[in-house]
């Protein structure tokens, strides 16, 4: 099968790409709106782009009426935000942050999540998240349907048991993030495998040592 992307609609391209380029990490992003309320929203068009400088990419589509989503408007205005990664324990609350709420109502309150002051940016981080990156806006790209934000990571927060700072390794046996799959599906990361051969076969395990 071949599909010419020049001959199908943007919506059709989105449905195919979003269901095939999976799993995708989920960024749960906190920002502050004009009225001072905390906004939180999940986005799966997100990933790391590099380490020098340490930058991450966040792509946010426009609403059907062509207006900006709250997160995009807040980043453009304030140029700072916090990106959180979601694990199994907070998946339902992350998903609840995607509900449409009045601008004066915080998604964190709605979802039962706890704001904690950040160190270098105004938007708070989320206490329940295993990982949080404080970011300043580095660069913005704009397409007819999206704003693509390149953020410079200024500070990392992580659970105490997650990172070994002596060897600069993540204790993956303590880290169980979730990713976005096609349609409305999510995936976990418990079924992990290594390509280091064990008796001629890949080693498959649900418990992963430090990497």
Order of helices and strands: HEEEEEHEHHEEEEEEEEEE
Spatial extent as radius of gyration: 18 Å
* Amount of helix: 10-25%
Would you report the number of β strands?
16
CATH class: Mainly Beta
Q: What's the architecture, going by CATH?
A: Roll
Tally of individual helices: 4
Number of domains: 1
Question: Beta-sheet strand percentage?
Answer: 35-45%
Fourth-level CATH superfamily: Electron Transport, Fmn-binding Protein, Chain A
Q: Major sheet: order of its strands?
A: 3-2-6-9-10-5-4
How far apart the termini lie comes to 39 Å
Structural class: mainly beta
Q: Which stretches are low in confidence, meaning pLDDT under 50 for 5 or more residues running?
A: 207-211
Choose one word for the global shape.
Answer: globular
What is the typical, i.e. mean, pLDDT? 93
Could you name the CATH topology? Pnp Oxidase, Chain A
Q: Main beta sheet: strand number and arrangement?
A: 7 strands, antiparallel
Describe the model.
The chain has four helices and 16 strands. The protein is mainly β and 211 residues long. It has a single domain (17-187), classed as Pnp Oxidase, Chain A, CATH 2.30.110.10. Strands 3-2-6-9-10-5-4 form a seven-stranded antiparallel beta sheet, covered by helices on one side. It has a three-stranded antiparallel beta sheet with strand order 1-13-14, with no helix packed on it. The N and C termini lie far apart (39 Å).
